[in-house]
Amino acid sequence: RIHLMAGRVPLGADRAAVAGEMETTFIENLRYAADLLAQEDMIGLVEPINSRITDPRYFLNTPHQAAAILEKVGRPNLKLQLDIFHCQIMDGNLSRNLETYFPLIGHIQIAQVPGRHEPDSPGELNFPYIFELLESLGYTGYVGCEYAPKGDTLEGLGWLRSYWESRGLQHGGTTK
Questions:
Q1: Domain boundaries, the chain
Q2: Name one GO biological process term (predicted).
Q3: How many angstroms separate the CA atoms of 50 and 67, rounded?
């Protein structure tokens, strides 16, 4: 799997004025990339990145926009990389968005909102609920941890041990 980036609205340009041309170019580029990736049996991922905090100029900024573009591209080896952090900032309504876009999802990334730290840090999101929802939907892919840990790596993954234990699992995800 590889993240295919959408590009940024040019400095000084009005987003609405260049949106059509940027979308056309992105769709052409995605088709080209998808065809190359298909030769290697690879999946391409498009990730909406919030334009409110992280990158005001990033072209692809909502799962709705990404889904529409993926439909226009029409390649089965292109999927949605849904970053829960970005989705919450741009739209909220995470449960419904996960359910709606689940067939398109090829990868999930997580971080707490608003601080972009560990899932168990103070914030807006209830990650045990989100993980249970993903399980109930049948998600079997990886969950990427794209956050800034407050401490070192081991501390930054401490939430995972607690989560596994709350689910009756031992370290590494094996059942007791």
A1: 2-167
A2: glyoxylate metabolic process
A3: 15
